[in-house]
Write a structure and sequence with these properties.
It is a single chain. The protein is of the alpha+beta class and about 100 residues long. It has two domains: about 5-50; about 60-100, no CATH class. It is built from three helices and three strands. Strand 1 (about 5-15) and strand 2 form a beta hairpin. The chain is elongated.
């Protein structure tokens, strides 16, 4: 008898603008997941999905950059790289001038 492992099927549904989590058995054939997703009402062309061992989403909010006005003003005071050290080729300069003329 095969030991079926339970995993979590996470679905990002662009129709509903929602994330769904389903407890599923681990299958070798992805068509089993696709059939299940259609059966519960997901439109396959409008979703992204993945199998994961994790039953909770990772809250990475603290990893986001501080986008406050104070942070922006401080970043303006930091030294930046001198862009003159990266020479542009003739082709790049032409493309840039063409894009600005449109």
């Amino acid at each position: 008898m095969k030991n079926k492992e339970t995993m979590h099927l996470w679905v990002l549904d662009f129709n509903d603008k929602a994330v769904y989590k389903y407890a599923v058995m681990l299958y070798a054939d992805e068509s089993e997941y696709l059939k299940m997703l259609e059966d519960v009402g997901h439109e396959l062309s409008k979703i992204e999905w993945m199998i994961s061992p994790y039953d909770e989403a990772i809250d990475a909010t603290t990893d986001l950059r501080d986008c406050t006005k104070e942070f922006f003003l401080q970043s303006l005071q930091r030294p930046t790289a001198d862009l003159r050290q990266f020479p542009r080729t003739e082709k790049t300069a032409y493309k840039m001038s063409t894009n600005t003329d449109r």
